Amino acid sequence: MIYHSTRNKALCVSSAEAIAQGISADGGLFVPASVPELSAADFEALKGLSYAERAARLFKLYLTDFTDEELRECTHNAYETGSFETPNVQEIATLADGSMLLELWHGPTCAFKDMALQILPHFLTRSIKKTGIDREVVILTATSGDTGKAALAGFRDVPGTKIMVFYPEDGVSSMQKRQMQTQEGENVRVCAVKGNFDDCQNGVKAIFTDPDMQKALAENGMQFSSANSINWGRLVPQIVYYVSAYVTMLEKGILSEGQGFALTVPTGNFGNILAAWYAKQMGVPIRHLVCASNINKVLTDFIDTGIYDRNRDFHATVSPSMDILISSNLERLLYHMTGEDDAQIREWFGALKTDGKYQIPEELKNRIQAEFSGSFWDDAATKDMIGKVFSENGYLSDTHTAVGICAARDYSAKAAEQLPMLIASTANPYKFGKAVLEAIGGDTGADEYEILDRLQEKSGMKIPAALAELKTKTVRFSDVVSGDEMPAYVKEKLGIQ
Ligand SMILES: *Cc1c(COP(=O)(O)O)cnc(C)c1O
What we know:
single chain, alpha/beta, Rossmann fold, 6-stranded mixed beta sheet, 5-stranded parallel beta sheet, 16 strands, binds pyridoxal-5'-phosphate
């Protein structure tokens, strides 16, 4: 499989190069030249296999410069060495209204990001070797809270790598902040940024694409890569879990072969929902994709009007991992849906950078609406839904997942055709304990650990060990910089001029 840049179709790289570089030097994102299709027999052949075996087979379709053995090693290391608390890696729960939750948060940091970030380091170190460059990889990551911790956990003490994570100082939950500040490992660094997630992401993108910075790194035997969902190596593992979820639903008799279903994804950077769209292109019978947002509803507006406009107030919500106004992966969708029109992508994303805004033609908007719809939900609706699902089903949902449930129910209520509904459940509720406890009527006047205990008492759901143990860990990182100071900070911490 060959990969192009969304901003330069003539650029052709291997999957190893795409993963090693993270983002294309022209600012574009790497995309596969074609999307492999799965037949009914291919889906059949995935039945009965473990998650790691399924993943290895599916990776083979995209990462063609890896051997079967390498891929199986990677999936074994990621999914079969005990870092996921359930042997199935992902689970499906059913609510009283028949909708299903695809639980993607059974990994070591309690959010769906682990599904990809437990395997990315294995892809990346092998990719670097394959590209024949003997350099240390410096992972720079902007996070709205969950990517940071998942990337730190994945890259901790991986030989030949260093990782630096930037998070918005006041834009993450206290549990998320603790998780990052207490990270152990010799090759890790965490820093808060005065600003929001977009400031962190812009800062990281600017550092990546700065030629002077790249030169300075190369002179010191280093090279940047990304653990954000702009890296293709993050998206493929996400495609895998949607294919695998379909196969599991077939195995369990929830769906019959080829039976269509609707899928709702709580969305921020558009990575998770884009992975679902790729799964659909591969042949998973997803009939409709519901893009769920909180009040940072730039995507709902885009789907409704065809105008992407980030010039608006940024709101901090109880679903902080979706507090994003620049959804990077939309660029990949538009590249594919415009028939790979790289000139058009350059124009739109140039406009996004200079004016914060672009508009797609009516015809394209209509095609997007045929596949996607979007809706947004505020904090009050989110908490109401957590309370409702808890009292109706005894099921505790996190804030992001609750935004998804709101959007899914709204879509089903209005849809002409009733389809089985699968909702991506993206985080363990304990990660956002304060808001969740409030939503089910608990007393939240306490510190974050007391909140964990109260939530356990009230819900009966077990506190994840990874969160309980934070209490005894020391804070290692408390640096704070402004967006402008990020390049100097990176240079200083890497010891380069
Ligand atoms: C990252 C994240 C999201 C948003 O996913 P995107 O791929 O950025 O759209 C939603 N929920 C949780 C819990 C997350 O960590």
